[in-house]
Design a protein that fits this description.
TIM Barrel, 13 strands, 4-stranded antiparallel beta sheet, single chain, globular, alpha/beta
Length: about 325
């Protein structure tokens, strides 16, 4: 009997031999996972968007998510002024039951998300330079701010667990940690300050039976080790060329599941068939195992990275060939608009 979409994802995460490569490519109607959204509160006035943490977001002429340019705190020492969202509010979860039922009809792997789980939320509310300086010069207030954010997100985790229990299979979250050449801070400081707080958040997720997925952009080669040590089940890496495909495979293959795709900077935007296919083949050689350890995932905003549907289709078919070669089954045929 063939595995269901949920079983395929879970087998890949646990290195238990999926029937094929798990896939998250909703643009082609192929997604083994299902997103469980929760409500957020945002304000927009005079073209300026304010999120529920009090951060003001601005956009340039380039299509993308924007970035926070107005911070509710002038510095980390003002952490007592920060009012996190109230995740106990029932309205936030009103659409979840419908999403769960739709996912369960197809036995898909369910996932809820946390945007800016720790470091990103710290600098979005208090300013990037302020946070980096405080990690060295004002540790007490930096710690108080970090703990306040971690506590709020653990309350969100508990709210999902109390309402939906094991129906929720995982949490996914973002925390970008790198430039093109290195992480923003030393790995020693990362372990000293961030490791225990990540561990507390991820332990709360695991206690409820959920897997932990983390996205991080940039050259985060050392921090991947930190994620493994904190218990992360899957790491989303969208710039495999910047990281070094062979190096990452040599260091971490078989120790964590990679959620990735052809490089969103060096390959997909070019539309070059040979380059896109080469990424798929090298990722198969260095990051995947026959027991699992890899999920093909889309980058949702193709316009922002300059990658059209044609490039994504080339990538999908290349990874389908990889799936056939590695597991004996290709990906499901894409539904091309």
């Amino acid at each position: 009997m063939s595995q269901s979409p949920r079983e395929i994802v879970q087998a890949a995460l646990r290195f238990e031999g999926p029937d094929r490569l798990p896939v998250r490519m909703a643009c082609f109607g192929r997604d083994d996972t299902a997103w469980i959204p929760h409500g957020t509160r945002e304000l927009e006035r005079d073209g300026l968007r304010t999120d529920e943490w009090g951060c003001h977001w601005e956009h340039t002429d380039v299509s993308n998510m924007g970035q926070p340019k107005g911070h509710p705190l002038a510095d980390v020492c003002e952490h007592e002024k920060l009012v996190p969202p109230d995740y106990s509010e029932g309205w936030r979860y009103e659409g979840c039951e419908e999403a769960f039922r739709a996912a369960e009809q197809e036995d898909r792997y369910t996932q809820a998300g946390i945007f800016m789980v720790l470091f990103e939320r710290m600098h979005s509310v208090a300013g990037f330079e302020n946070v980096l300086m405080a990690l060295l010069s004002d540790r007490e207030n930096a710690a108080a701010l970090a703990d306040k954010i971690a506590d709020a997100h653990i309350r969100l985790v508990r709210a999902f667990q109390e309402r939906f229990g094991p129906r929720l299979h995982s949490f996914s979250m973002t925390d970008d940690w790198g430039t093109q050449s290195a992480a923003f801070i030393s790995i020693e400081l990362w372990y000293d300050f961030f490791f225990p707080r990540y561990r507390r958040i991820f332990d709360a997720m695991h206690e409820g039976g959920q897997d932990v997925w983390v996205h991080s952009c940039g050259k985060v080669n050392e921090i991947i080790r930190g994620y493994i040590d904190t218990g992360v089940d899957a790491v989303n890496l969208q710039q495999p060329r910047a990281l070094g495909i062979e190096e990452i495979g040599r260091r971490y293959r078989g120790k964590i599941t990679f959620e990735s795709l052809s490089d969103i900077q060096a390959s997909l935007p070019t539309g070059d068939v040979e380059r896109i296919v080469a990424d798929a083949r090298e990722l198969a050689e260095h990051w995947m195992t026959r027991d699992g350890g890899f999920v093909l995932s889309d980058y949702g905003d193709g316009v922002a990275i300059g990658a059209g549907p044609e490039a994504k289709l080339i990538m999908y078919r290349a990874f389908s060939d990889v799936s056939r070669d590695l597991y004996g089954r290709p990906l499901p045929e894409p539904q091309v608009p």
